[in-house]
Amino acid sequence: MRSRYRGFLTLNMARPKTRQRFVFLFLAAAVLFSFVGALAMVQAEQSLTGSDLSRVTSHLSPQTLSMIVGESIPYFQEKIQTAGLEEIISRTAFELMTSIDFRDPRTFLGKELPLYALFDSEIDVASSDVDYTSIPIESPPPPDLDKQIMKAMEHPDEDKTSTDPGSIKTKQVIIYNTHFWESFLPELHKTNPDQATDLNRNITLVSKHLAKQLEKMGIGAVTTERKYTWNSGAYVQSRKMVLSVLKQYHSISYMIDIHRDSRRRDKTTKVFDGKPYARLAFVVGKASTHFEDNLSLAREMHKRINELYPGLSRAVIIKERGNGNNGEYNQSLSPNSMLVEVGGVDNSFAEANRSIEVLARVLADIIHEGTVVTARPDATEAGK
User: What is the distance between the alpha carbons of residues 223 and 219, in angstroms, rounded to a whole number?
Assistant: First the structure.
């Protein structure tokens, strides 16, 4: 029952009907939010070939998206209309602290809506069991990682680039690890996925195994590594490392950045002939100047690997810059660049090495231009 008291409109909350209406409104709001969340999950699970949402938003201009978001958030609209040096400085500081770019509303939505960040990734091609709930995801390292790295770098030679040139003089492939600390839980005797990192027993050992396999097939490969902190910018640091090696070996044309995914075992493992293999995935940066060439290479690798071992390659994923995605991944340095996710936190070196041997055979076939890959990796070599 409404009444007026000294010019103010009051509402009697003691009446049962009034309380019932408020309860109904709250329940309706809860149902609405649940429905929207369920709809997002269904769309993620059913999308196998690409991101419809990403495609839609990519065709909208920043001005249009800004207008839409600005209708609900007045401060947003006010902010993007501000000009001058003060605005540039404040905007830059805000973006560094929050990863929200006022010129791209999708970065704001990615912070507020669950699963929205996944739609900055596009599934180009994928195995039949792969959807947006199982594509590779990147997890941040543990908070104390930088402290461990800085302590390791206290030794005079630890902060220098080290390379393993192998035995073949002419180099065609460089193999490196931007996130060199990524490791596997079984190898560390740990169970917490947030602790799958180590400064010595890590993904760099898989890269060395790949180089050895390529050299067995007549492909000169060099591995390179250097310790640097997460906060110093991993891709910036790995780019410097790669450039220093490219100056030394001008014959290199293929670049492979090996990573370990953060997904669990059920998403990252496939069994062939009774032996588990760490599944692979190829990530292509859309911000690269060689995007089309690198995408073609990833597609060819995915296709040939799955012809030998169906489903071993999970997918080719295209990532745009933004929402925490680098979007370039140093792939502008060569039209033959690859970022390969090898297994997940629950895999082992043996499982990763089995898969990396398949990758080596397929890559060697492509480099040799015409040598048909007719056999699987020898069982004695493929992870004992």
Answer: 13
**Does pLDDT of 54 surpass 70?**
no
Q: What is the pTM of this model?
A: 0.69
Identity of the residue numbered 107: T
Q: What is the pLDDT of residue 115?
A: 46
| Cβ atoms of residues 130 and 48 within 8 Å | yes
Mean pLDDT of the chain: 77
- Let me know if residue 125 belongs to a domain: no
Residue 41: domain span: 1-46
Same domain? 341 vs 196: yes
pLDDT of residue 34: 67
* Angle at CA of residue 313, ends 311 and 316, nearest 5°: 125
Instruction: Specify the higher pLDDT residue, 69 or 223.
Output: 223
Domain shared by 56 and 42, yes or no: no
Residue 165's CB is within 10 A of a number of other CB atoms, namely 16
Q: What is the pLDDT of residue 165?
A: 73
Smallest CA-to-CA distance from 238 within 341, 339, 357 is with: 339
CB atoms within 10 A of CB 172: 20
Identify the band that residue 315 occupies on the pLDDT scale cut at 50, 70 and 90.
very high
For 81-115, give one letter per residue: b (16+ CB within 10 A) or e. Answer: eeeeeeeeeebeeeeeeeebbbebbbbbbbeeeee
The helix/strand/coil state of 370 is coil
Question: Is residue 377 situated within a structural domain?
Answer: no
Interior angle at CA 306, CA 302 and CA 312, nearest 5: 90
The answer on 225 and 295 residing in a single domain is yes
pLDDT at 145: 82
**CA atoms of 177 and 256, how far apart (whole Å):** 8
